[in-house]
Amino acid sequence: MNPETLLDPGLYIVATPIGNLGDLSPRAADILRRADVIAVEDSRVTAGLLRHIGTKTPMVPYHDHSAEGVRPALIARMATQAVALVSDAGTPLISDPGFKLVRDARAAGHLVVTIPGPCAAVAALTLAGLPTDRFLFVGFLPSKMHARAEAIAEIATIRATLVMYESGPRLGACLAALAEGLGDREAAVTREISKKFEEAVTGTLSTLTERYADSPPRGEIVIVVAPPGEAPPASAEDGDTALTEALTRLSTGQAASEVAKKLGLDRKTLYARALELKAEKG
Fold first, then answer.
1. Over the stretch 76-114, which tens digit does the pLDDT of each residue have?
2. DSSP string, the chain
């Protein structure tokens, strides 16, 4: 190889197409051709991409089952060679084990470069028609019912659009769990992004649950869920209920402060009301 075509030693994080091979950037193709080795999730998938760009760059498996054993050797190679990292589709490190390779490469003092490109989570956001100014990517929710419900409860109050990956067979159950845990929010189910049968189906979580309950779709799926609506202002009755409970374990001032912070009500008003409640109890 001509020395002028050699890449600097280090780690190159290369985003690959999520469907349409035409989405591979010229820069990404150039890096994959010139790298000394490519760390891949599945060599069969990446081999197809390499054939598309006309190269036979050597590959090394790097996935959940091999990462721990392979990582030290890859880090060592980065001292003198260019190592490219790819996933089966999209941007590496998004819902796969690549972050540890980046962390260790930096710790070893190696060059780390990213070659940005397709990402299914971001692409789904652009199709969903939901707020994009603040969003949370949660990867795949747990498959077991109880664990999934707990995970949904953790994110239920976050004021951001939620983005998650899912498989066709699990989609109906996942949508039902989201509807139960989040309420009937607006949402979108996107699949086969950038491919011939790209689809974005929008509606409420309940209508989407009904649609997919008995007809799981094929292809890679991304669910996008709208953020929670504004909570209604707390009422005087809400304040009394919270104060009554708080007074069983706190002083009058502490109870007023806690409820004011929790419900967004005026502390002085709550303090006066707490004194009234105590007096009524005698």
1. 999 999 999 999 999 999 887 789 999 999 999 999 999
2. --GGGPPPSEEEEE-B-SS-GGGS-HHHHHHHHH-SEEEES-HHHHHHHHHHHT----EEE-STTTHHHHHHHHHHHTTTSEEEE--SSB-TTTTSTTHHHHHHHHHTT--EEEE----HHHHHHHHHTS--SSEEEEEEPPSSHHHHHHHHHHHTT--SEEEEEE-HHHHHHHHHHHHHHH-S-EEEEEESTTSTT-EEEEEEHHHHHHHHSS-PPPS-EEEEEPPPPPPPPPPHHHHHHHHHHHTTTS-HHHHHHHHHHHHT--HHHHHHHHHHHHHHH-
